Amino acid sequence: MSSELLGRAAACEAAMAVDIRGVVKRFKGVTAIEHLDAGIWPGQLTGLVGPDGAGKTTLMRIMAALMRPDTGTVSVMGHNVLDATALVHRCIGYMPQRFGLYEDLSVAENLDLYAKLKGIAADKRVDVFDRLYEFTRLQPFASRPAGQLSGGMKQKLGLACALMGSPDVLLLDEPSVGVDPVSRQELWRMVQALASEGMAVVWATAYLDEAERCESVMLLDKGSLLFNGEPQGLTSRLQGRSYRLSHIQGDRRALLSKALGLADVRDGVIQGASVRLVRAADMDVSSMQLLADQSGGQLELVAPRFEDAFIDLLGGGPDGRSAIAERMEDVATQRDVMVECSHLSKRFGDFYATRDVSFSVKTGEVFGLLGPNGAGKSTTFRMLCGLLRPTEGCATVAGFDLVRSTGQAKSQLGYMAQKFSLYGLLSVRQNLDFFSGAYGLRGAHRRQRIEEMIETFQLGDVLNVSPEALPLGYRQRLALACSLMHRPSVLFLDEPTSGVDPVTRREFWMHISGLVQKGVTVMVTTHFMEEAEYCDRIALVQQGQLVRLDTPDALKAMVASDELPEPTMEQAFIRLVEAHRDGVDA
Amino acid sequence: MNAWSRLLALTRKESIQILRDPSALLIALVLPLVLLFLFAYAVSLDVRGVRFGIVVEREGAATTELLNAFERSEWLDVQVAHDRRELESQLVSGSLRGMLVIPADFESRLASADQQAEVQIITDGSQPNTANFAANYASGIFQTWLASRLTDEPGAIVVEPRFWFNPELDSRRVLLPGAIAIIMTMIGTLLTALVVSREWERGTMEALLSTPATTAEILLSKLLPYLVLGMAATVVCTMISLLLFDVPLRGSVGALLLLSFIFLLPALGQGLLISAIARNQFIAAQLALITGFLPAFLLSGFLFEIASMPAPIRILTMIVPARWYVEGLQTIFLAGDVWPLLGRDILILSGQGMLLVFLAVWNSRGGLDR
Question: What domains are defined for chain B?
């Protein structure tokens, strides 16, 4: 009787794909994981979410037996990661955060390498490859070097390599960073199919809409598990606390700053022309209602999202003030149009990366450039900030032609590159020194600007540290400080919050909103549709051409239907891109 | 069985990457050629045709004789003047490396029995080596000339020097084998340090480590292709040295290949160790240059004689693998298969190689946990 019970208990244990018990991991005194207990089940898609530095990657690496926990045990399919590393490696597929494949090898060569490493017999390889090619639809690109694939295809190849040898546990560390919504949706469907076949899948992500769709979510913060269970379990806690403020008269950004300053507003973001607010748990709606009445807007209760609950659990959003914007003087300009391009084209050989693109951006506008990976939006963006020379057409910034008066045009613009392009071998102060010098600041003026940046961005404590050793939020602030050193009137942001968690992202956009209110014009590219909601207007680029140019709300309205009365920006993007693609194909 | 097929797969991947990476081929094949030609033509330790001035203050029979003796020398390129002021400016500007002043009273002193005939030698001390050579050559020619005047009668003893192993004292013969050591250090240490740290930097190492492949297999797969590349470079360099620059090969090809093969172990081991510590291409390149290239250049005995170094530095050269390789190479090229000497070099190199490879594997273990 008792042995039967024991047997059943043992079967249950074995059924758990990954068993994490009492795991602690520290690095040089910093705690990455603090006493974590959790289980991951086969046939389930488990989301691993949390702000940057929460310990997601460390946990992934421990499960992949690449790092050893200080205390506690982790077993993967019954094998302890401490002493059975080889066995663990046999039953997992792991996709690291960075693209971990060889860019100078072709798709087929990468697959072949992983097939051999995972010990797939030569006679079975053809079958396995056929199935993976079919699954990922990479067959047409088999002989292409991996470095020349688009972001989405690279991730699919990474997934295919991780899937080699049919692992029991699939560990994916932020697979959707830098991937456009269409490819992301495809990736998501593939992984869901795998989970339904019985694989245990762990998907670490900073995108909370993805977490919301997982069957189970582990929410980490500072190494501790804040929540573990079905995402609805967390979202439902926020029932009756999420609001939308629409039909706002006047500036919605100023309104959001004001709202975030209220004690009873827990969190808020811009959503097209509206503002989304979350009420603090123990407060009533009266002061929010008052704010709505003052602005002439409508306040209505909406269904909570996972992101609302996430921010609430982590202690709420920022307070709505931007120290840097408060310090900045208004941009002095009489111009209505700050950035303009007409018939802009860029040709590489026979291939048009950008073809005949024209638009103009008004002073103080936030203008988004969106498109799938490889659609040419980066090329267009780079021509607009003077990094690439157009083949045809012309572009101006603050009235200066970017080809003929490059110097003057560039003095008007600040550029914040993807991944922030800070110097890892220089300290924070040396980075500030360098960028201020590079923007031509000198003497007392330069010292004063640097001091000002240190003070407003609270960099004082980390001046002698390398940016690489800092959390993402600090790095982002430093990069913004560097690009604002010379007080540009136009700010170019290239995927500014790619892979950044929602808390840091809100803080970043608070600064941007503040700058816009001072008259700074902002150009932004992004794959992140929540970010696109902050834009006044969005240009959708596809196959090198401008296919749509409108406000976020208008773009959403374009795809609204009876079955989908209120599409999200992401859904709008996917449908518009697919509609255009089908239209071209037909 | 599985381990072998994994190793094979990794080695194959590494080879494809070498063939596709222009910078690897550049360092392995083009750089050796450039270095060889540089050492063969631009760097020479011999002082030949040194521009040298002779001031003849008053002409005479003996003076002309002495002048002829100088003009016959192949070491000096003589320019004659009658006043030292004519040549001083050239000495200052560096177009002359030194001068000999034959004073006006030279003939009369020479003829007189109780007075010594004197000349003055002035050299450009800003180039100490050349100045030394020039002063020694000049006084040598002068002394020989004096002696020949005094011992004109037959039967006098004449000393005829013989230089063994390199009778023409052609420094190219010593430099080119040394250059091979530099090139092999570059391939072994710099290239491997770069390729492994690149894997860490790009995150490919993390993906590899999550597969059943072990650290030892991954590192070993780096050794094999670069061993082949290094051996290929040795063959290319040897062929060029023998055919183009007439460096003799007195030993056997077998001994040369064996020695080079053994030398690649410490060179590659050092590269792997650097990449295991640095994990960053820039720092790895710096470390490889400072700990690999520079000691191979300065402390291997290839340019600067170890015997004339101060004792602490002489001891320091013992740990530089290139020192033993240079010694072995010079033996094989200029002397022959002197096995007692080669055996010692090979033994020391294999010891250093095993130690470095072991340290590299030991430092890479623990994967991401550091």
Answer: 11-43+171-364 (no CATH), 50-150 (3.40.1710.10)
